[in-house]
Write a structure and sequence with these properties.
This protein is an alpha+beta fold and 228 residues long. The chain is 19% helix and 33% strand. The chain is built from five helices and 13 strands. β3 and β4 form a beta hairpin. The longest helix is centred in the first third of the chain and has 11 residues. The protein is elongated, with a radius of gyration of 28 Å.
């Protein structure tokens, strides 16, 4: 691969990658390094070309991140089905996190990106083996240790592949000691006795003691099928 970069003062710099199975810098980074060595600090455009007639090649993901971090307004020549096109480096990495030598890594722009964990109703996560019991209404409670919930809308996320999400409503949260769990709590979880529920909780929380406080969360689903 070979690459050429044009600096703001219209000087041209070239670079070639030296392929080796242990890796190494891409031609674009070699060209940018050559430009920096010779005093160029701002770049106008860059292009990379492959050997054996491959023509213009789009930059890899690592190169794109470097372009965005150092030269977000630089134009990058890329191949498209309609022919060669010049695009802004920043446009090659939508929703990218920016890095600068001064500030390090910056967060994602909240105007463009929403964390799925915080966008929408709170999430309550379940082992996928509970999916059918929840869907059928056999399980209407879940007991949690240091995993609080609040009454109101919720998303029940079953960690299968792919994930299954049920829309739900948390109708109640009761704080109690493990020793105070009742047979009714167990039966609402599809079990029989409080002793059976305590034993099941040990599978999720091996260090759980009878004197620990847990949250007994009561919920109802808003749909029968959910969404994958």
């Amino acid at each position: 691969m070979g690459a050429a970069v044009m600096a703001a003062d219209y000087r041209m710099f070239a670079g070639v990658n030296l392929y080796h199975f242990t890796g190494g810098p891409c031609a674009e980074l070699v060209a940018l390094g050559a430009a920096r060595v010779q005093g160029a600090r701002q770049m106008r455009c860059i292009v990379a070309v492959g050997n054996h007639g491959r023509g213009v090649i789009a930059p890899c993901g690592r190169d794109r991140q470097v372009f965005v971090d150092y030269y977000p307004t630089m134009r990058v020549i890329v191949p498209t089905p309609a022919g060669l096109r010049s695009v802004l480096a920043a446009d090659l990495m939508p929703l990218a996190q920016r890095w600068t030598p001064e500030a390090g890594m910056n967060g994602l722009d909240p105007l463009l990106y929403q964390d799925p964990e915080t966008a929408g109703p709170p999430i309550i996560r379940f082992n996928p083996r509970y999916l059918e019991a929840v869907r059928s209404g056999a399980k209407t409670k879940t007991t949690r240790f240091r995993d609080p919930a609040q009454p109101g809308p919720a998303r029940l996320v079953f960690e299968s592949d792919p994930e299954v999400v049920l829309s739900a409503e948390v109708t109640g949260v009761r704080h109690c000691l493990v020793s105070d769990l009742t047979d009714g709590d167990a039966q609402a979880e599809g079990l029989t006795t409080a002793a059976e529920l305590r034993e099941a909780l040990k599978g999720h929380y091996p260090d759980l003691a009878r004197t620990d406080e847990v949250d007994v969360i009561t919920f109802r689903t808003n749909d029968e099928k959910g969404a994958a």
